[in-house]
Amino acid sequence: MLTKTRAFVLKEIKFRDTSTICTLYTRDFGRLSVILKGGRNPKSKLSGLFSTGNLLEVVLYKGNNRNLHLVSEARIIRSPMTAEPDMERFSAIYRIIETIRNTTGNEEKNIRLFDALALTIEILCNTCQNTDAVVAWFLLRLISNMGFEPSIEHCVMTGRRIMAILEERPDSALYLFYDPGGVALQPPAIHSRQAWQPLPVPVYLLMHTLANTDILTVNDLDVLPEESQQLCDILQNYCSMHSDNQPPEKNRKIISQIRSKEI
Questions:
Q1: What count of Cα atoms within 13 Å lies in the side-chain half-sphere of residue 230?
Q2: Closest to 24 in 3D by CA, of 6, 3, 1
Q3: Distance separating alpha carbons of residues 131 and 159, to the nearest angstrom
Q4: pLDDT tens digits, 7-34
Q5: Angle at Cα 14 formed by Cα 10 and Cα 18, nearest 5°?
Q6: pLDDT > 50? residue 60
Q7: Which pLDDT does position 138 carry in this prediction?
Q8: Contact (CB, 8 A) for 162 and 155
Q9: How far is the C-alpha of 145 from the C-alpha of 113, rounded, in Å?
Q10: Which of 17, 37, 142, 149 is the most buried (most CB within 10 A)?
Q11: Is the separation of the CB atoms in 36 and 50 below 8 Å?
């Protein structure tokens, strides 16, 4: 089947003399592997397009029950290499790549997640004041769309509004629980240290703001770099913990199909 879709390049490896095998995260098919026959030949129309981190529009031959699909055409939509070299941007995009590779399964369609990814890459490839805040915005959407969104508004243990707690006691200690996923006050002693991580109040407030903010306005926020970096680390740990305990890939595909029908 010849089909067109948008795709984000997660990985590229050389194959034989002039070909390339790439791992893509696509809008219509989720994560899949493709082959670019002769793609490393300078005369190929695909040469140089499938660099890691590029957002593309691709035409491919999608075969049922195949592990490798053939790319026919492609064009670049966004690339981190089009602007001046920026190590913060590259670092942010590779953090996103690593998280997607660790949390998604093969051919698990998730349109909402892809659209959030495409918006994030567009912001990162343009003028970006705080790359970590943009990455944190994306990680919150990834967590939500993968089905393990934490309770941010209410304490996962008592049900009380977190903001109301902070109004009464601004110096409260907050924690992010892995299971059940959500923010809570200091955990009881019976909880294992592996079941939660500290969540400083300023970092929680940033998380709360980003969860309710359009990505186009993230650059307008007055954000301390150290807080956005800490939030990224916390959210990535949360993603890693849940990806390590995800159901088998077959079950995740069923969940993804159900979620895609809700869109």
A1: 17
A2: 6
A3: 33
A4: 999 999 999 889 999 999 999 999 999 9
A5: 130
A6: yes
A7: 97
A8: yes
A9: 6
A10: 142
A11: yes
Q: Which of 59, 38, 136 is nearest to 95 (CA)?
A: 136
Q: Quick one: which H or E segment has residue 88?
A: helix 87-103
Closest CA to 130 of 215, 69, 31: 215
Q: What is the pLDDT of residue 127?
A: 73
The Cα–Cα gap between 165 and 263 comes to 35
| Full strand arrangement of the beta sheet holding 182-185 | 182-185, 174-177, 196-198
Contacts made by residues 43-49, CB under 8 angstroms, sequence distance 24+: 44/18, 45/73, 46/71, 46/73, 46/74, 49/74, 49/75, 49/76
Which H or E element spans position 86? none
Q: State yes or no: cis peptide before 180, omega within 30 of 0.
A: yes
Please give the single-letter amino acid code of residue 174. Answer: L
The average pLDDT across 164-174 equals 91
d(Cα 49, Cα 33) in Å, to the nearest integer?
15
Residue 149 structure tokens: 């969104």
Find the angle CA(183)-CA(186)-CA(191) to the nearest 5 degrees: 90
Nearest CA to 201 out of 229, 160, 173, 238 is that of 173
